[in-house]
Amino acid sequence: MRSTVTPQRSTGGRDADVDGDSETGVPCSCWWRSLPEFEDFAGVGTPRATAARTSTARMRVVREMERLASAAAYSLDDLRHRLLTYRAGDLWFPAGGLGKQDTDIPPVITLLFLGFAGVGKSSLVNLMYSVLGRSGFIPFAHTTNPAGSDGKTTCLEEHNVLRSMKNGFCVFDSPGFDYSHISAGLDELTEWMEVGVRHRQVCKPSADTSSTPSTSSSTVVANRFARRRVNCAVVIASLSELHRSLLTSHLLPLDATRQLFRHHSIRETCNDGPILILTHGDELTPDERIDTRVAICEYLGITETTGIYDVPCANEYGVHIDDFDPVTAYAVAEAVYRALVVADRCHPPKPGLKDWLLVLISWLMFALSSFFAFLSCCCSKLAKMNRDYQKMR
């Protein structure tokens, strides 16, 4: 059955409805409708709405949330169908004078979830299982990423959120980075983006954790799985944590998030910036939620409405999120769809004859240099032996 969102606006101090509305009469899934900007957007000429006109950034966020609510009412099932029928390269468009047959499109598009510990990456994966599982597939399949003794995940895990052997994309859940060891985490990120990722690939433990170190058996198991090239990165950040960072002027989480979001390996590999998903916004008041979002976007140097989504982590028990929050369900589906659009427009050209000849020449030069280095070493040892022999005489 198609999910619907009935347009409403704040009614002041009405009591909460029995279906989970907030104390202001605004549905919990439409938290922005209690803001003065929504009164201005709806054409209500109140003093609060007049004062809100000066806050253009907040107004843009309200308009974006209303767009998602309107789209969720009519396009959620259609967007689900597009994702379920998607195949790698479906969203490709011509650029650079190359045809699709000359573009190196992998059989499966890989989306890599990145973020710091506790921001809700695994919860977001579970939410995707629930949202996309409504179209005939198993609706809930919780992540089973193995954890160390401190409860943190220790390896990469591939998720087929469509639960179909004909899926066109997969999602990789990664261990959370450590704020106190951001350099080591970014070095590992560079390796993932340049070399690729594998299912069950063991990651480097932080210096202050007691996680089980990488063993040879774990490496052997990981090497049995296919290595996938990362096609698009998705950065997940905790809205409530960044709000506390701004309040206390302890900007380490905010600075670390900016380093991760603007890391050169993401832009060099994907030729575009990552998608940003903000979680745990339901722990804040509407004013705190929208102000923190605007401040984060300003700090990262991005717009408040393009490539950024507010997704509360409410799906902890396999409940279908769109049964009570179609706006969040649509935001999750659109975030995945936008990531696929970014991935399909960033495929490199296939290597041609000149590229293969260059590789062959490079290997020949390497072989020759290794051969002459071996000869040099042998001659050096023979010369030394000859000098020692001459001294003995």
TrEMBL record:
InterPro entries: P-loop_NTPase. The keyword Membrane applies. It comes from the Eukaryota. The chain crosses the membrane at residues 356-383. Residues 1-11 have a biased composition (Polar residues). Signal peptide: none annotated. Residues 1-24 are annotated as: Disordered. Keywords: Membrane, Transmembrane, Transmembrane helix. This is G domain-containing protein. It comes from Vanilla planifolia (Vanilla). The lineage of its organism: Eukaryota, Viridiplantae, Streptophyta, Embryophyta, Tracheophyta.
